Amino acid sequence: xxxxxxxxxxxxxxxxxxxxxxxxxxxxxxxxxxTFSGCEVTVTVDGSVIVRSExxxx
Length: 58
Fold this sequence. Notes:
The chain is α+β, with helices and mostly antiparallel strands. 14% of the residues lie in helices and 29% in strands.
């Protein structure tokens, strides 16, 4: 499995959760979820990264 950092731009994820130009948070309680190497990856606004293996559909 390739390192997650080799396929995800951390700066892009960080910009989703960072403050906007007027200082307000862009997302409150937000999260981003995607699939990577057969796993479900969730990144939350507080910086948590949760990785769960997805059940096979075969």
